Amino acid sequence: xxxxxxxxxxxxxxxxxxxxxxxxxxxxxxxxxxxxxxxxxxxxxxxxxxxxxxxxxxxxxxxxxxxxxxxxxxxxxxxx
Length: 80
Known about the structure:
Order of helices and strands: HHHHH
Radius of gyration: 13 Å
Strand content: under 5%
C-alpha cells in the first residue's frame, strides 16, 4: 500500500478543521481544551492548524472533552 503525502496532508487538514470547528461551536478556548486534555495550548494550536498530526489518543481526548463521540467523525455532523 502506497501512501500519498498530499492525501495524508489533506486528511490532517480536514481533521484539524473538524476539531477546531467543534471547539469553537462548544464555545471553548484552546487553553480550556488543552487543560482538559492534559496537553499544552501550543499542541492544540498546532493540531488545529494542521501543523501536527495528532495521535488517536489525542483525538479521542479532544472529542471527549468537547462532548463529541468518536462516531461523529466517521459519519460527519448531522449524518448519524
